Amino acid sequence: MPYLRDSGFTAVYLGPVWKSLNHGYDTIDYLEVDPRLGNNDDLYRFVETCHRNGIKIGLETGFNH
Length: 65
What we know:
Blueprint: H1 2-6, E1 11-14, E2 18-20, E3 27-33, H2 40-52, E4 56-59
Parallel strand pairs: 1-4
Antiparallel strand pairs: 2-3
């Protein structure tokens, strides 16, 4: 995180992180992080660490249509 902060990053944009079957855009649970990426606590700690370092987080979500 210090590297991002010291490099002047102010935001991190993450592609779909929610539980899906294949590629992230086929979300099956919008309340659970895809186990291939970690878990809800991992995401919470990442976001908390970013915020402590002045870095905002954007989360992309693919809603079914």
